Structures are given as structure tokens and as C-alpha cells.
Amino acid sequence: MSNFGILENDTFDEWLESSLGRYVVAREQAIYDRVLPDLFGFYALQIGGASMPLLETSRVTHKFTLAWDTNASLLAEPDQLPFAENQFDVIVLPHTLEFQALPHEVLREVFRVLRPEGRLLMTGFNPYSLFGIKRYFGRERSGPWAGEFISLSRAKDWLTLLGFDIVGGQLDCYNVPAKSDATLQRLSGFETAGDRWWPFAGGVYFLHAVKRVAGVRLLKPNWVRTPRRKRIAVAVPTRTHRNSTIKNNQQTELK
């Protein structure tokens, strides 16, 4: 048993059932619950974190969860998604990139299967945080500590290069990555202090991105289109009036 109360062979999904795992899930669930209800469409996909019901508050009609090493409704490799292009309206990546050998290829696949103007929501562990310190200097190599933490700046660069437009984001989980509920509760003041004094050092970052495609423009429904300006009526002079005007001008010039 490790110092943080999890076995050395624990997977990430198993780690999520620990005290620290439940704490992280609760913090992240609050973020997703704030964003997902405002996103609409027909198909939503969660890749990874099958034990995290992140899509529960989504209003998208059909919702699926895909995993590669745990039980889920769909099983596939994230860097080789078995879907056609432009298939999904919303895709959620909860700490998916940390456990992939080719994280950039995963984002490329996500971009492919996401429809134009579709939304990507993702979370990742921040290497420049207390979580990152534990990852690099701790002895545990299971759960999240077995993953490769990707910096926020690198994740943003990858998204931008692929064609995503980042429209939102935040950092969270400033608390110490402790092993017990009591310690996490006692040090919960770190959340408020960290958000104010060292906002760059949150243990988890969240990004909200939109797939942009050149030449694609969404058409607004009729009820939200800008009303046309009313044309000003202009009187067209009649033939008689025009002839009379020309005759008067000629008489004036003769005088």
C-alpha cells in the first residue's frame, strides 16, 4: 500500500475511487456541470474516465463513453477513433491525453470526428502545481502519477495548431494532494487562496475549445436574423412633370 492509500497497480479509474480521486472528480464535475447544459446537438462522446459520469448534465440527445482499458459502452484506441468525420457535437476528454503515447494524434482524431463549430471540453493535470511536484518527486507510479502531465501552454498550442479556437478555461484543485478526506477538508482554504495568489498553480486545468473550419459559417434561424432596413419611398417624377421642368429651364436660359 502506498503513502496515499492506493495500490501500486491501481489504474486511473481505480484511483478515482480514493479520497483524493473523489475530491478531484467533485471539483471537475462542478466545472463540467456549469458548461455542458449550454451545449446542444445530437451526439456527445466522452473519451476516457469511464467511471466519471461527466455527461449526465448534457442536453445532447445521444451520449456515449469510450475507453481503451476499462469497461465502457465503446472500446477503441483514442488515436484511432472508429467514427466518420464530423460525427459529434460535443467531445469530453477527462485526463485522456496523460495516458496516451501519442496525445497529439488523439487531438487530431478528435478534430476529425468533431463537426464544424463542435465543442471540445478537456481537463488535465498541471505539471506546475503541487500535483506536478508529487508526480516528479514522489515514489508512486500508479493512478495519475503513472501518466505524463502535459502543460497548459503545450495543450493550448496543440489545439491552436489543429484549428481549434479556445473560448474558455480555468485552473482548479489548488489543495494539497493528500490521502485522507480529513486532511483535504482541513486544507480546503488552499482553493480560495490559490485562486487568488497563485492562479497558475492549480492542480487541474480545464479548456473549452471550438472546432473552426475555414469557409464554414453557421446560418442563424429566421427569428434571430437581423431585420432588414425599411426602404424609404422615393417619388418618381411623371413624364408630364419631367417635360414641364425641361421646358421651364429652356425658357429661363433664353431670357
Break the fold down into its secondary structure elements and pairings.
Blueprint: H1 12-15, H2 19-35, E1 43-47, E2 62-67, E3 74-75, E4 88-94, H3 103-113, E5 114-125, H4 130-137, H5 152-162, E6 164-172, H6 181-186, H7 189-197, E7 204-211, H8 239-254
Parallel strand pairs: 1-2, 1-4, 2-3, 4-5
Antiparallel strand pairs: 5-7, 6-7
Characterize this entry briefly.
With 255 residues, the chain is α/β, with parallel strands linked by helices. The chain contains eight helices and seven strands; from the N terminus they run H-H-E-E-E-E-H-E-H-H-E-H-H-E-H.
Describe this structure in words.
- The structure is a single chain.
- By secondary structure, the protein is of the alpha/beta class.
- 32% of the residues lie in helices and 19% in strands.
- The chain has helices at 12-15, 19-35, 103-113, 130-137, 152-162, 181-186, 189-197, 239-254, and strands at residues 43-47, 62-67, 74-75, 88-94, 114-125, 164-172, 204-211.
- It is globular, with a radius of gyration of 28 Å.
